[in-house]
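Researcher: Here's a chain I'd like modeled. Treat it as a single chain, no partners, no ligands.
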Amino acid sequence: MSVFLFILTNNLIPIFALISMGFLIDRKFHLDVSTLSKINLYFFVPAFVFVNIYTTKIPLDMLKALAIVILILIINWTLGTVIGKIRRFDKGLTVAFINSVMFYNSGNFGIPVITLIYSSKPFIVNGETPYLDFALTVQVIVMIVQNLSVNNIGAFNAGMASGGAGSALKRALKLPAIYFVTAAFLFKLVPYDLTQFPLWPAFNYAKSGLVAIALLTLGVQLSHTKFQLKDFNVYLSAFSRLICGPIIALVLVLLFGIKGIMAQVLIISTGMPTAVNTALISVEFKNHPDFASQVVMVSTLLSSITLTGVIYLATRMFPI
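Model: Modeled as a single isolated chain. Structure tokens:
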């Protein structure tokens, strides 16, 4: 119950408050959602991935976690593709469905949830939280992979909906995130602490602004969206994301022989709702933005229920 209440009060309520503000502001001022999505994808997202990659130390023992996260992406892509063929989606909807299953909210949703779990009972030992740093390191790896892929593979997928592979690649390469990723890794090799550079606070400010602006943008998009609460495909996507995701992670964790905290975090992280960036990309590439926006909303709401079950099972199946 404490986990459910935490997710509700610390994740869902703030998230839906910002989405609602975007919705109401658009109803009053009729904002341009395309402009807002460009601000996100060309400014806030690059700063976010650059700061996270540059400031995160990735120890070698995390390579297993990295491999699992990448395999989860591949399997989710396969799952989305198979469902799209079975349901006979058109090319655009298939791509939107794949993105909604592959990419999940591992940052502003995942990090607080992992922090709560490993800073509360039964993970407190003698008044301290000895497992928290390790758990957060695993989650940050998940977040980095997800951010890299959603802003590159996700954009490429969306571009494929309206053109061939060459055209999709060109459009994806126009997004600056991939170049900021490369720059972050290169700067890690430079013997200078970039956090001491006078412009570093500007990167931090931009990184911190992503969540609020992205959620406001989603609210603006939703004010243009015709809600279809009976759209089975939206619930199918949410089921694939919230239920199938943790099952896939469980199978991979067992196959790789991963145990303890790493196993728990990898399973829990895959139970997060669909990433807001999938909706932003759908808006930018004009690929079923209504479907993408509704999936983000529905999966976020339902995750408050499904995540409690995923957390319970993961922590008991893989004891410390």
